[in-house]
Structure formats: structure tokens, C-alpha cells
Design goal:
The chain is of the alpha/beta class and 196 residues long. It contains four helices and ten strands.
Length: 196
């Protein structure tokens, strides 16, 4: 459905193997489990395009954390924007294997910044710096080789309350060209000027 579609009322929805296969009135239900949705609304699952799976409670209560972060808000898919990739991959595998209930996880790794551009709110942490076209190519390939689905960049890094450092356009282009050549996406971190 697109946003301009007219909503349907009082319809039946047939689901097979977790997927909607038919929508209509008075679908045959003999021999099938029937769940009443009377008075409820069904909509497409939602995406959250910027989450971080870095809560230490994931180690002891992963289902509680995932449910509280994603499922309770209707997010069926999320983009993990820069958590520790191996841990997020293990979490995603547990969801795919049915060991946890959770959203589909797509990973955007790297958290690439311009030269000397680690954001002020992450000090003393230093993120990988894109200092040249060659460095951009190397870093993108490295993170994609690790198994990331896409690359995250800080196209603007907050350095102080009144200063943002921007990644030069030729380096942004280098990052995106390599990622796109490998059928990967690039997402930019939405930063503001305030330091926390």
C-alpha cells in the first residue's frame, strides 16, 4: 500500500507462513485458525532507521531490551547505526533462528568521520577518519568485508556548540561510490550543534 491508498474496512486477511497472501471479504477459513481482529487496525510494519544495540542489559535480558526498543512501537525492521557489529550480527542471528522475538536488523557500520572529526559528545572515543579517497575506499571495503549491510558516515560532526566539521564532498562521493559498487547503502548521521 502507498500512503494515498484508501483504507479497507471489515476485511479478512489470510496469512501463510508469516506472510499476508490474500486480503478480501469472506475469505474461506475452513480448517484454518481464525483470530478476530474486530475493532483493530492492521498496517504495514514500521522501520526505525537509527537504533543502537549497545544497552548492557542485552547481555542478561535481550528479549526485554528488544521488545522495549523496537517491538512495542511496531518496528518490524530497524537499521543499527553503528553498534559493535559482531554483537549486532549475533543478535540478528538469534532473531532469525527464532531464539528471540525481534525486528529484522540491517547494519550500517563504520561511523566514518572527516579528518579529526570525532564528535565532541563521544570524546575520548576516536572514530575511523576518512582522510583521502584511498582511505575512504579502504575503510568501506573493510567494514563491508566484516559483513555490514551498509556504511554510516558523519557528513557533519559536532565539534563544539558552535562548530560542525563537514566531510568534504569528494570523500562522501568516494564512500558512496565504493559502497554502491558493492550493492551496499550509505546513511548519514543526523547531527546538530549541541554537545551533551
Amino acid at each position: 500500500m502507498n500512503p494515498d491508498s484508501v483504507s479497507l474496512e471489515n476485511v479478512d486477511i489470510e496469512i501463510s507462513e508469516g506472510k499476508i497472501v490474500r486480503i478480501g471479504s469472506e475469505l474461506p477459513y475452513k480448517g484454518k485458525e481464525v483470530i478476530s481482529g474486530h475493532g483493530h487496525t492492521v498496517t504495514a510494519g514500521l522501520w526505525n532507521s537509527h537504533v543502537h544495540f549497545n544497552d548492557p542489559a542485552l547481555q542478561v535480558a535481550p528479549q526485554r531490551v528488544i521488545s522495549g526498543m523496537t517491538l512495542k512501537y511496531g518496528f518490524t525492521s530497524v537499521i543499527d547505526a553503528g553498534s559493535y557489529l559482531p554483537a549486532t550480527q549475533k543478535l540478528s542471528e538469534r532473531i532469525a533462528n527464532g531464539k528471540l522475538n525481534g525486528s529484522d536488523i540491517v547494519t550500517a557500520s563504520g561511523s566514518l568521520v572527516p579528518s579529526e572529526g570525532s564528535p565532541c559528545y563521544l570524546v575520548p572515543l576516536q572514530l575511523p577518519e576518512v582522510t583521502s579517497v584511498e582511505k575512504a575506499q579502504s575503510l568501506v571495503n573493510q567494514f563491508l568485508d566484516y559483513g555490514a549491510d551498509g556504511i554510516k558516515i558523519f557528513s557533519g560532526s559536532v565539534m563544539a556548540a558552535d562548530r560542525t566539521k563537514h566531510m568534504p564532498p569528494d570523500l562522501v562521493r568516494a564512500v558512496t561510490t565504493v559502497a554502491h559498487d558493492r550493492s551496499a547503502f550509505v546513511t548519514a548521521h543526523p547531527t546538530g550543534r549541541r554537545c551533551y
